[in-house]
């Protein structure tokens, strides 16, 4: 019997640095690349928010089509199906006589629950689900400690990992692929079919986020250009705005690392290199913390006890915050930018979170759920991990005292221009 591997794409929508794909091609006669759009990703949450809002939904659809395009360019295609993976994957296995299924392992509870259901269903068919690791800069296997011993304090984690671990080279993107014979490769739903309305690009935003590996790689090249220009630039921009492509896996963190590393030695690029690397380490840290502690990050009291919650006015205050109607200009500007573009800077995220938690006395989990709906770069570990930290219920006790709303506002809007630009 010929060996046919089903490659289940999730948040890894790329050809470059994709070990799962490379191994599937090497170990099979043909592969079946599949993307499953799960309607559960678009439902309302217990916080009254949506799991996915229109801006990220649009970005996701573009990224999936981008992957199909990339696969077609090397002689393949992408099967697109809507439904629950635990139903779809076993059906496809039987229909296409698949001998093994590959996917990238996730860390948050809903994502791991889905893969556990798929694994169980495949088990009954005596088919193996092989897990790959491909979301982090450092591989779990290369860490100098087992997951249970990873330091809780970010600074210790950073120090140890940089001293004792390595960043592997990227896997080359395949240039040929042999896919199974499929009569109908399927289509993606329109946003309207997901009960979402397309949002036009806000003219105040300086970047149009277009989903897809090609767009992600093109944006990475713009970041490299920014680094080159740093020598003569008066206003040094450190933030890369790469997060949306990283979150859905159109870019691998290793690709980002090795590309920006090529700039080593070019004068004045060090600050931006260090800034991006620090961000990637935070990203790894939260993923590993989710692996270590699992669901604790989703609980209001997390690793401690959350502060005061004004239960009586919680819903009203949450609503004012979401709708940029708190009356506090900078926070309203942040929420307007978030609502209209899906992207805000790290300092803006902290500002909005601090105000919601400390000034409006709303439980931080409502804020985290709203960011989950709105952020174009949402990923569970980075979002819920950062929120828990800002709320003082994260597992890194040192991070409790570092947040200061006044300092943040000075950083974000020293001259009041930001609030003016984003006054709705
Ligand atoms: C309340 C709150 C919620 C957040 N939710 C998310 C989220 O859902 N998804 C997300 O990717 N980031 C999240 N962040 C982290 C951070 O704000 C964004 O990653 C960053 O602003 C993206 O901008 P950038 O691409 O210019 O980052 P850069 O500063 O250029 O950093 C490079 C990359 O490192 C990663 N990174 C940077 N800072 C962090 C951080 N603190 N934690 C985790 N990863 C980081 C991102 O992937 C980013 O693209 C959140 C932060 C806060 C305070």
Keywords:
alpha/beta, Rossmann fold, 16 helices, 5 strands, globular, binds flavin-adenine dinucleotide
Compact summary:
The chain has 3 domains: 1-135, HUPs (Rossmann fold), CATH 3.40.50.620; 142-170 and 210-294, Alpha Horseshoe (Serine Threonine Protein Phosphatase 5, Tetratricopeptide repeat); 299-421, DNA Cyclobutane Dipyrimidine Photolyase, subunit A, domain 3 (Orthogonal Bundle), CATH 1.10.579.10. Helices cover 46% and strands 7% of the residues.
List the helices and strands and how they pair.
Layout: E1 4-9, H1 19-26, E2 30-37, H2 54-73, E3 79-82, H3 85-95, E4 100-104, H4 109-124, E5 128-132, H5 154-164, H6 213-229, H7 243-248, H8 253-261, H9 270-293, H10 314-322, H11 329-341, H12 346-359, H13 364-374, H14 380-390, H15 405-412, H16 417-421
Parallel strand pairs: 1-2, 1-4, 2-3, 4-5
Bound molecules: flavin-adenine dinucleotide.
Residues 239-243, 246-247, 275-276, 279-280, 282-283, 286, 345-346, 349-350, 353, 371, 375, 377-379, 382-383, 386-387, 390 line the site of flavin-adenine dinucleotide.
Walkthrough of the structure:
The chain is an alpha/beta fold. It has 3 domains: 1-135, HUPs (Rossmann fold), CATH 3.40.50; 142-170 and 210-294, Serine Threonine Protein Phosphatase 5, Tetratricopeptide repeat (Alpha Horseshoe); 299-421, DNA Cyclobutane Dipyrimidine Photolyase, subunit A, domain 3. It has helices at 19-26, 54-73, 85-95, 109-124, 154-164, 213-229, 243-248, 253-261, 270-293, 314-322, 329-341, 346-359, 364-374, 380-390, 405-412, 417-421, and strands spanning 4-9, 30-37, 79-82, 100-104, 128-132. The protein has a 5-stranded parallel β-sheet with strand order 3-2-1-4-5, sandwiched between helices. The protein is globular, with a radius of gyration of 22 Å.
């Amino acid at each position: 019997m010929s060996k046919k591997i089903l490659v289940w794409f999730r948040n890894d929508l790329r050809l470059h640095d994709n070990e799962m794909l490379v191994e599937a091609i090497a170990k099979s006669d043909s592969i079946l690349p599949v993307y499953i759009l799960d309607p559960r990703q678009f439902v309302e949450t217990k916080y009254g928010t949506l799991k996915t809002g229109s801006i990220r939904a649009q970005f996701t659809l573009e990224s999936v089509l981008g992957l199909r395009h990339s696969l077609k360019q090397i002689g393949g295609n992408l099967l697109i199906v809507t439904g629950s993976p635990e139903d779809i994957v076993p059906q496809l296995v039987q229909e296409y006589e698949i001998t093994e299924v590959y996917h990238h392992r996730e860390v948050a509870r809903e994502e791991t629950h889905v893969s556990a259901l798929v694994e169980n269903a495949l088990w009954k068919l005596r088919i193996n689900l092989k897990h790959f690791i491909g979301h982090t800069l450092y591989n779990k296997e290369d860490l100098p400690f087992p997951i249970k011993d990873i330091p809780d304090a970010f600074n210790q984690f950073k120090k140890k990992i940089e001293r004792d671990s390595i960043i592997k080279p990227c896997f080359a993107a395949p240039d040929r692929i042999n896919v199974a014979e499929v009569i109908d490769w399927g289509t993606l739903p329109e946003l309207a079919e997901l009960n979402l309305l397309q949002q036009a690009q806000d003219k105040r935003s300086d970047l149009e986020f277009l989903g897809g590996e090609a767009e992600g790689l093109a944006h990475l090249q713009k970041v490299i250009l920014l680094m080159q220009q740093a020598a003569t630039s008066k206003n040094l921009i450190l933030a890369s705005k790469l997060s949306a492509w990283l979150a859905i896996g159109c870019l691998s963190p290793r690709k980002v690392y090795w590309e920006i590393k090529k700039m080593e030695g070019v004068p004045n690029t060090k600050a931006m290199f260090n800034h991006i690397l620090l961000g990637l380490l935070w990203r790894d840290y939260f993923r590993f913390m989710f692996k270590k502690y699992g669901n604790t990050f989703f609980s209001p009291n997390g690793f401690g006890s959350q502060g005061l919650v004004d239960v009586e006015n919680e819903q009203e205050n949450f609503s004012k915050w979401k709708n940029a109607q708190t009356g506090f200009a900078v926070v309203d500007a942040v929420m307007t930018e978030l609502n209209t573009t899906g992207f805000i800077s790290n300092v803006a995220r902290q500002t909005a979170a601090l105000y919601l938690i400390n000034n409006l006395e709303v439980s931080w989990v409502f804020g985290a759920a709203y960011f989950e709906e709105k952020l174009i770069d949402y990923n569970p570990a980075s979002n819920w991990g950062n929120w828990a930290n800002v709320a003082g219920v994260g597992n890194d006790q040192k991070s409790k005292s570092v947040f200061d709303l006044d300092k943040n506002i000075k950083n974000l809007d020293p001259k009041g221009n930001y609030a003016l630009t984003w006054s709705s």
